[in-house]
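MOLECULE: protein
FOLLOWS: sequence and fold
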Amino acid sequence: PGNCWAFKGHQGQVVIKLPARIYLTAITVQHISKDVSPSGTIISAPKDIAVFVSLLGSSGRGLALAGAQDREEETLLGVFTYNVEKNPTQTFPLKNMLLPRAFSHVKLLVKSNWGNPWYTCIYRVKVHGKMENQKALTQG
C-alpha cells in the first residue's frame, strides 16, 4: 500500500503509450483491498472510468502532443465502474469493434472516486489485446 499513481482530487486522466500498436479488447484496473489498507478504507479508489483512443494517436502521434488548433478526435471505447466491493483487480471489455484498428495510445479518464476529496490512487492498469502484426499473421 502507498505505492500507487496518485493524482490530486477525484478526477484525473492518464495517457498510456503502448509498447506496440494494439487492437484493444479489454482494460484491467487494480487498487488495494480494504484488508491491506492502513486506514481500513479504500475511498481513494477510482469509481467511474472512461477509456478513449485518439484517431491521430493511431497514426503515431501522441495524444498529449496535439496543439490547441489541432484538436484530436477521440473515440470512447468504454465506460465502467470500478466496484470496491468486488475483487481488487477488475477487467472491463472495450468496444473496439466500432474501430477495428490498432492504437499506440490509450487514455484512461477517471471521472470520480469513492469519496476521497484530496486524491485518487490507481495501483495498476493493464491493457489487453493483440499486437497489430500478430493479427495480420493470424488472418493470413
